[in-house]
Design brief:
Number of domains: 2
Oligomer: single chain
Number of strands: 0
Shape: globular
Structural class: mainly alpha
Radius of gyration: 22 Å
Order of helices and strands: HHHHHHHHH
Largest sheet: none
Number of helices: 9
């Protein structure tokens, strides 16, 4: 029995990749200087996704050994937590630990609710559902954490005089820092909220598109996409709030003193 979707060959992949050659030619013609980045991005996309496909094929085949699935999910989480702080401008000692802890707690809790509470995935199908769900939640959570922690550092550095004045006047460390923490959480949630505002109007989301191509009923595809968006929003929100609070506790002492020296640009 043939699958409900149209299978692609490597030749068809090459045809699609040839569009990137057109993009490179446009870059050359307009002297944009993007040829190298386009070539590198194309190569990395092909290599990384093919590797992922082969790994997932092997994991799906060994799905009964749940520890293979959990090991892969743990590796994905570590990579996401590391990537979240890679481009943060102002760092402090313990930032990577905070990022890993925040993304692990938020993404895994949200994914567990989605997989076992909402979709009610049998344990033997954890690989099929859990890995894609966690991957989507991780991607958006790391974006929220990265934006949030970067904004928190900028806010505290830019408002140092205001924070220290509030502390000198008797404010608690939370009263002095809450404005910066709130701005950080708001910034971290902007991409997710913007996406939610235009779902189904400006674009068809990636997961829904994939299910439609696979022949899933459009209503079922829409329901799955709604669940995914709620999981993504929850993961980004919890992750950004968690890392903001962890950073706040590292940058302020229990004696209500601000430690700006810990923020390194």
């Amino acid at each position: 029995m043939s699958p409900d979707y149209i299978e692609l060959t490597y030749g068809q992949l090459a045809l699609a990749a040839s569009l990137m050659v057109v993009c490179g030619a446009i870059s050359l013609a307009l002297q944009l200087g993007l040829e190298r980045r386009l070539a590198l991005g194309t190569l990395r996309t092909i290599v990384q996704l093919l590797l992922l496909g082969w790994v997932l094929r092997w994991v799906f085949a060994a799905a009964e050994q749940w520890y293979y699935v959990v090991t892969l999910m743990a590796a994905m989480t570590v990579v996401a937590g590391t990537a979240a702080v890679r481009r943060v401008e102002r760092r402090y000692a313990g930032l990577l630990v905070d990022s890993l802890l925040a993304i692990w707690l938020s993404a895994w809790c949200v994914t567990a609710v989605g997989a076992f509470g909402v979709v009610q995935v049998p344990l033997e199908r954890l690989a099929q559902y859990g890995i894609p769900l966690l991957g989507m939640v991780l991607h958006n959570t790391l974006t929220g954490i990265s934006l949030g922690i970067d904004r928190l550092g900028s806010e505290l550095a830019g408002r140092r005089d205001e924070v220290e004045t509030l502390l000198a006047l008797g404010a608690t460390r939370w009263e002095a820092a809450q404005g910066a923490v709130r701005q950080a959480v708001r910034t971290g949630l902007i991409p997710t909220l913007n996406t939610m505002m235009v779902l189904g109007i400006v674009s068809i989301p990636g997961m829904m598109t994939g299910q439609l191509l696979a022949g899933i009923d459009p209503i079922q595809a829409a329901l799955y996409q709604m669940v995914i968006m709620f999981l993504i929003a929850a993961g980004a929100s919890l992750g950004t709030m968690t890392v903001g609070l962890l950073a706040y506790r590292r940058l302020f002492t229990a004696e209500h003193q601000f430690l700006p020296g810990r923020l390194k640009k």
